[in-house]
Every structure is written in C-alpha cells, then in structure tokens.
Amino acid sequence: MHKTVRDYIRTIVDFPHEGIMFRDVTTLFADPRGFRIAVDQLLHPYAGQQIDKVVGLEARGFILGGAIAHQLTKGFVPIRKKGKLPGRTISQDYKLEYGEAIVEIHDDALKPGEKVLVVDDLLATGGTAEAGIKLIERLGAEVVGCAFIIDLPELGGRRRLEALGMEVHALCAFDGL
Predict the structure, then answer these.
(1) CA distance 109 to 135
(2) d(CA 122, CA 41)
(3) Which of 36, 108, 142, 145 is the most buried (most CB within 10 A)?
C-alpha cells in the first residue's frame, strides 16, 4: 500500500495546550520518501507556470520553500517575524488568536512584476499567509499560488485567501483545530 503525505504526519494531542490536535510535520520532513513526495506534490500544480521566486513563511515554510526553490532553480525569500531580518525591511501586522504579530520582508527581496509562489506547512486562519501576500504585493510582485501541506478547513484560511483572489493548493486536510 502506498503511503500518502498525510500518513507521514503525526498528531500530538493537547499541544500546545488542552483541546488542540497539533499536526506535526517534522515526522514528514524526517522521512526521505515522505519529504520527497510532499515537495513534488507541492510543486506539481505549478509545473510550466512562470515562477521567479519562492517565498517561505516562518518557520516551517523555510524548509519547504528552500526545497521547492532548489527544485525549480529559483531564488528563495523568507518572510520572518519582526526583528529577525538584518537589512531594511517593510512590515505587516496581523491578528492572532490572542493578540497581534508582525512579519517582515527585506525591502529589496522582490522586484515589481516577479511571479511568486508562497509556501508554508499549515493553513489555519490564513492570517500569516495574508500578511505575507500583502508584503509581496507592496513590493510590486504577483502571487501565482499558495501551497501548503495541511489545510484546517474549519478555521477558514482557504476561504480567506481565495477571497483575496489567491489560488490555494493543499496536500491534505484535517478536521478540527
């Protein structure tokens, strides 16, 4: 029987607090076959499309985005939490379940008109991805797609990104939080 990406993902109950079913992709990343399958499947919908850069959202998006950029022979650009990038940046705040957060990108990381693929491990509410998309668009680049390993449909992230006109690709979905 062939394993799917979902088969490589471990669920940790009550992490980081009670009532949460944490979907842990580190088990997927640690398995060479699982990791290869995930990267190949994340890339597949974009085969033949023009992509100039791959943008990864902190932190697991860096792992995936780096691998995808390598496969495409394209540059990789990180979107990081505030205060982590050394050069001149632009920032975007967004709401979290409890409070707010800020993400940043170097102000020279993308050029106007560049086609960008946004990558992260998990799509929950879509807040981080939306903030990243806003940064990319503020630099004049165009998001051609948003690729995730996991979608948590009940949290509405896919609907939120699609409402922004984004194409969303996820390899699997899990019910619940």
Answers:
(1) 10
(2) 15
(3) 145
Question: What are the tens digits of pLDDT across the range 146-174?
Answer: 999 999 999 999 999 999 999 999 999 99
102 DSSP assignment: E
**Which tokens go with 170?**
């996820």
- Report, as ranges of residue numbers, the positions in the chain whose pLDDT lies below 50: none
Active site residues: 60, 97
Four-CA torsion 28, 57, 52, 90, nearest 10 degrees:
-170
Distance of CA 121 to the CA centre of its chain: 5
Cα angle at 20 between 29 and 98, to 5 degrees?
105
The pLDDT value recorded for residue 177 is: 64
Element (H, E) at 135: helix 127-138
Contact indicator for 104, 89 with CB cutoff of 8 Å:
yes
Report strand pairing: 89-96 vs 99-106.
Answer: antiparallel
Sequence-ordered alpha helix ranges (H) in 44-119: 60-72
**Side-by-side strand order, sheet with 53-57:** 89-96, 99-106, 75-81, 53-57, 115-123, 142-151, 168-173
Rounded Cα distance between 144 and 116, Å, is: 6
Residue where the block lists tokens 């509405």: 156
127-152 per-position pLDDT tens digit: 999 999 999 999 999 999 999 999 99
